[in-house]
Amino acid sequence: CFVCCVVSVVLVCPVQERGALGFERHYHVTDPFIRRLGLEAELQGHSGCVNCLEWNEKGDLLASGSDDQHTIVWDPLHHKKLLSMHTGHTANIFSVKFLPHSGDRILITGAADSKVHVHDLTVKETVHMFGDHTNRVKRIATAPMWPNTFWSAAEDGLIRQYDLRENSKRSEVLIDLTEYCGQLVEAKCLTVNPQDNNYLAVGASGPFVRLYDIRMIHNHRKSMKQSPSAGVHTFCDRQKPLPDGAAQYYVAGHLPVKLPDYNNRLRVLVATYVTFSPDGTELLVNMGGEQVYLFDLTYKQRPYTFLLPKKCHTSGEVQNGKTSTNGVSNGIHLHSNGFRLSEGRAHVSPQVELPPYLERIKQQANEAFACQLWTQAIQLYSKAVQKAPNNAMLYGNRAAAYMKRKWDGDHYDALRDCLKAISLNPCHLKAHFRLARCLFELKYVAEALECLDDFKGKFPEQAHSSACDALDRDINAALFSKSDNAEDKKGGGPIRLRATGRKDSISEDEMVLRERSYDYKFRYCGHCNTTTDIKEANFFGSNAQYIVSGSDDGSFFIWEKETTNLVRVLQGDESIVNCLQPHPSYCFLATSGIDPVVRLWNPRPESETLNGRVVVDMEGASQANQRRMNADPLEVMLLNMGYRITGLTSGGAGGSDDEDSSEGQVQCRPS
User: Could you report how far apart the first and last alpha carbons of the chain are, in Å?
Assistant: First the structure.
């Protein structure tokens, strides 16, 4: 097989071991390999859904856990089952982990019976059984710096810590989410930063992802031990569960505002998987009920909102992205509890033309836009943006494509692009107008009116265009309506802070942490994550060049990390792909789902016949998944039966900057 060939090459090459390992890990996942990725083997041995996979550190062992309550350790390079044992669990296994520095001898499992078991593989025995959780255990996390310690996340809202050096058969509560979010909160996933094991990321019910400093929590616990009210088996104090600065929150900026609408439609938002990039600087989240998000932990940014330069030139030569600028300092962001206009004034620099090859890509994107191929246009604009990140026109055009496509989160990405375009060119006419439309679509109605009034003041010749008049009517109709959303905006503070019921009430500390949350850097679309709450998304490649995610349609999706473009879709299961675990050193991927098998994927030989598992129509698969996420149960059933459901409607706020439109003067070609 491909992997065995790689191993033999590495062994015979007269290169120092360290240099060979560095070369191998740097080039083990490349674009040609991704485009040749195909099924190598199916590992059969389980009799139920395979809910979790885990490589050992060397990558020569793969552990799996299943609904059959068994764990199997495989030799994946030779497709052999090395060991199978009943774990002692009485319900589905959801997580399996090798304990670091145990010589791959100790394996930990967590299951739906609320138990955590520790197994010695050399004797095939369960040596520890922990029963402190009161609801399903969804994830186990380990860390090399803590060789005898591990953590669990369960649906009782608790994060527990275990130390196998202690004789006690009990664990201690590290984090109690119920003290912050009420009794209904459920912890779903957790992971430890591979470069700094003091940081623990936790995903739970709701759109917020939490990052905790374990060291600060430990120090807080030690200081609390002097207090007579401190619990014996808890790190948390009732008056102060966590010390200030021990937690940071991350959220896709549009989701808190969308949450009431999702709740009304019984659409659940829950983080089903979290993981760090290999260098520990990025956090990837598979948000159940929505998309996959990547958060930058180094260059953090607040959620984007309405922010416009107060003054700008009005010459036709600098409208619609025809110039680039130095931008507005510190980006475009604000806390979500209000909007304001910037007091700064951006400097307009001379026009910077795109190089010929990027101009061709932009023209291809414009042609795709004209043919209403919104996703293709977005991907081409994104490809150009990666190479020319300071070109205002590219951001403005991509915003228009997002607004036409109207997938979940598209209007917020469009808003971000509009603000970026305006920061680069404060007199980008179409970006100003599209910004007002985005604010309206995102339910920031008063802010949309303010933005539209500002637009009319800056561009008086467009003040009475048909597009302007139409948006003005929409905004005023919304302002005078007595909708629930309008009432929600008036009282009780920002939408992002409030709970949905009495048992779901949140604390003041939680409100503060949510208000200080950070926004995402990249968003990945195409998959569907609504049916299971264990669906994973992972980095693929030592440099995290790609993002992979399972999906409810039985496929798994692969995106370029930096462009967010979808590059490969493969059929990985007859029903649902839940687990995707990349090999630590090779271009080798293990997947599992509802089928009782583990599938192994690697680059297939060029001489091999056509890969029957490749989903050629990636655009069609992505559109079907967007419909699936927004459909009611009957529509999903019909979709599974093969009936065609009407697609998403088109519409929006005008064409790209090089494309004519009949929606009003403001949407026409550049002045």
Answer: 59
β-pair partners for 580:
591
pLDDT at 599 (0 to 100)? 98
Residues 462, 457: Cα–Cα separation, whole Å: 9
The predicted model gives 54-77 an average pLDDT of 97
pTM of the model: 0.86
CB 633 within 8 A of CB 644: no
Label residue 642 by pLDDT band (50, 70, 90).
low
Span 395-415, average pLDDT: 97
**Structure-token pair, residue 528:** 């569907």
Q: Residues of the chain with pLDDT > 90: what percent?
A: 67
Residue corresponding to tokens 């937690």: 247
- Supply 158's token pair: 């608790």
DSSP-derived 3-state class of residue 284: strand
Per the CB < 8 A criterion, the answer to whether 572 and 593 are in contact is yes
What are the DSSP calls for 585-608, one per residue?
SSS-EEEEESSSEEEEEEEPPTTS
Which element (helix H / strand E) includes 141? strand 137-142
What is the Cα–Cα distance from 180 to 201, expressed in whole angstroms? Answer: 16
Residue bearing tokens 């990405």 = 413
With CA atoms as reference, report the closest residue to 465 among 320, 667, 669, 671. Answer: 667
Report DSSP state, residue 518.
B
- CB 209 within 8 Å of CB 252: no
Class assignment of domain 356-482? mainly alpha
Domain ranges of the chain: 54-182, 356-482
Distance CA 66, CA 89 (A): 11
Residue 185: how many CA atoms within 13 Å on its side-chain side? 28
Tokens of 243: 């010390």
Q: How confident is the model at residue 600 (pLDDT cuts 50, 70, 90)?
A: very high
pLDDT per residue over 38-50, tens digit each? 999 999 999 999 9
**Residue 336 backbone zone (phi > 0: left; psi -120 to 50: alpha; other: beta):** alpha
Residue 33: in which H helix or E strand, if any? helix 31-35
Q: Which residue has the tokens 């670091």?
A: 100
Secondary-structure percent of the chain, ordered helix, strand, coil, rounded to 5: 30, 25, 45
373: closest CA among 602, 63, 618? 618
Closest to 591 in 3D by CA, of 611, 568, 571: 571
Q: Do the Cβ atoms of 620 and 284 come closer than 8 Å?
A: no
Nearest-5° Cα angle at 77, 73 to 78: 85
Token digits of residue 229: 């009210």
CB within 8 Å of 9: residues ≥ 6 apart: none
- Residue 392 and residue 379: Cα distance in Å, rounded? 17
Sheet containing 80-86, strands listed edge to edge, beginning at the edge strand earlier in sequence: 50-55, 62-66, 70-75, 80-86
In percent, how much of the chain has pLDDT > 70? 77
Q: For residue 608, is pLDDT > 50? A: yes
Look at residues 309, 272, 315 and name the one whose alpha carbon lies nearest to residue 292. Answer: 272
Strand (E) or helix (H) holding 556: strand 555-560
CATH number of the 54-182 domain: 2.130.10.10
Residue 339 clears pLDDT 80, i.e. is over it: no
Strand 106-111: give its sheet, edge to edge: 93-98, 106-111, 116-120, 125-130
Distance CA 615, CA 622 (A): 11
The pLDDT value given to residue 606: 79
The position carrying tokens 């992505």 is: 622
